[in-house]
TrEMBL record:
Belongs to the TRAFAC class myosin-kinesin ATPase superfamily. Kinesin family. Transmembrane segments: none annotated. Residues 400-427, 640-667 form a coiled coil. PROSITE patterns: FHA_DOMAIN (PS50006), KINESIN_MOTOR_2 (PS50067). This is Kif1 protein. Residues 475-533 form the FHA domain. The keyword Transmembrane does not apply. Residues 6-365 form the Kinesin motor domain. The keyword Nucleotide-binding applies. Keywords: ATP-binding, Coiled coil, Motor protein, Nucleotide-binding. SUPFAM superfamilies: P-loop containing nucleoside triphosphate hydrolases (SSF52540), SMAD/FHA domain (SSF49879). One of its GO terms (molecular function) is ATP binding.
Amino acid sequence: MAEECSVAVGVRIRPFNDRERALNAQLCVEVDGPTTILQTPPEQAEAGKNKEPKKFTFDASFWSHDGFEVDAKGYCCPAPGSRYADQQLVFDTFGRRILDSAWEGYHCCLFAYGQTGAGKSYSMVGYGANKGIVPISCEEIFKRIGANTDANLTYEVMVSMVEIYNEQVQDLLVPPRERPKKGLEIRESQQLGIYIAGVSRRAVDSYPSIEAVVEEGTENRTVGSTLMNATSSRAHTVLTIEFKQVSQAAGQQGQKLSLINLVDLAGSEKAGQTGASGDRLKEGCAINKSLSALGNVIEKLADKAMGKAKANAVVPYRDSKLTRLLQNALGGSSKTVMICAISPASSNYEETLSTLRYADRAKRIKNTASINENPQDKLIRQLREENEKLRNMVGSGSPKEGETEDLVHKQAEIAALEQALMEMQKSFAERLSEAQKAGSKKEKSLDTKLPHIANLNEDLLLTAKLKFAFKEGVTRVGRGSQEDGDANQPEVALQVPGIHQEHAVVENTGGAVTLKATDPEAAATSFVNGTALQPGVAVSLSHGDRVAFGQCIFVFVEPSKGKVTELINSGQVSYAAARKELQQGEVTGPTEEELKARVVCLEPRAGHSYLKDSSLQLMLCALRCHTTKSYEVVPLLFVCEASRQLAEELERKAREAEEAKEKAKERQFPTHVCSGRFGIAKTV
Ligand SMILES: Nc1ncnc2c1ncn2[C@@H]1O[C@H](COP(=O)(O)OP(=O)(O)OP(=O)(O)O)[C@@H](O)[C@H]1O
């Protein structure tokens, strides 16, 4: 039975963040019932644009900007009489709907879209006591299963977790070193639809077991391997919960299968605006490629739904891994929800408008959802038949010229189908025991009873995800090689700039731990509590000490004195404080006046020649925050407008700067390039 249904869309507005508050950000969003209203900021109106507010109506518009209280557990709930939408309300509106559909046997997909820092992860995963849709849904699944009283009905739940990073699909339930180099292939079979060949599927039988799998996947995210400076926004993360209901009741034997896809997309801002270069730019382009492909798919599907495109027009799903994977969710047979996270600040007006337009298009998409009541036996039989057909195609004589590639492709398809068949024939009990073995193997590999360091990250979700233990004797810290199985790999291998091959050594003597840099250059980039190491001098480490190697910041943990979570949750240690401490320890940054004097070069872009004062403030603020030796590029997002007066002032300052240059020669500042949408300013 097929049912036509639209993609459900919700918008959520977060509170101002610290930076926006510091810059006296202007609120430019309002909600009225399910409608989101975007006010045109004065500078946009000045530029002659239509200043009428823009209104978009969705299934829900969540006001999470203000009006909340924080309870004793740290949970943000609505203050009496306020319209604040808390995590529970968002789950009740959309998460519950997804689970109800899964119970009926529909495939479902819920994804979060929005610019970096707009609140996608907050809605999907949540932070601390403010659990998001993913953990609440997992908990609810096992609550519902636990409430079942029908002895003939059993449930099987399996989880897989992948990320799409630089257009490669990576299995997050496999440690980075054990993954195939080019990631996993997305395949399509008549019977299985779109699937990821060879992806790990873990059987789970309780909330703690699913939580452990998600935790393991989160630890294995790309940020884990490229370390601390990458943030969660670099990759798209897809958690798939395979939910099967098996009925043994007489006359009703059969099963319903639902795939629940929960997708946290990468930040949607454009790479060009962030001033990124090198690997970051490559990531940015890959994110852009998949997100713009997603935009094209949404546009085409919306056009089809509105009769603007022909019903048989090709939808460009194959343009990126992300759209291929979401093929069923968009325009397919799945029940789909999209949550768009937006910033409330007028400085993000353009991005917010683009997100709202995206969302407006997505709500027009029509899917044809159908219940998946395919008995396993039938599916296995059909898969065998599909495989047989493929074999016959491959087997008929030697390939003709030009057919070799096709043959290789078909053989890969056969192998993938055979693997899928083998997987399908395993019993759930077998899978559970395999999953338990995988879990215990992991526990053994991480000995946190030993003194260790755990990473600190701007993103709390990624904090303490990377730990290195110090056994009795010497542990080497150094630049890890990219090659697998390198026997000379240091125990603490950090693949980030500024780390030497042999950077430092940590010595554990009966529980007393010291750190020593191997040469003067390494000493200058190794810090304990913000102070650089002295060449050849060993420093004792104590519980809670911050240890930094280049850009990687860790906290030292003595298990006999407490856990890393206690240090973080109590506020004793934080990324922000550690970063600040480091900046003070490094070459002191220039003052605002000095910085202003150093903004000397403006490259006007067509129609938008000059920076506006607020943009300059923002830029100076960003420069100051980032003026450390370790930053090469200042990531900056701002929209600036014409201001002749300011440009004249800048030119004057440039002249003054030239004069001051000679005087300032004794102090060397790093060169930064800040790129905004309309102007580029350099410091010298
Ligand atoms: N509804 C909300 N209520 C309170 N705080 C929020 C809300 N939404 C987001 N935040 C806060 O805003 C910050 C950024 O949110 P979040 O990490 O979810 O952004 P994101 O869109 O996932 O970013 P990224 O693309 O980098 O992963 C976090 O500190 C988060 O706690």
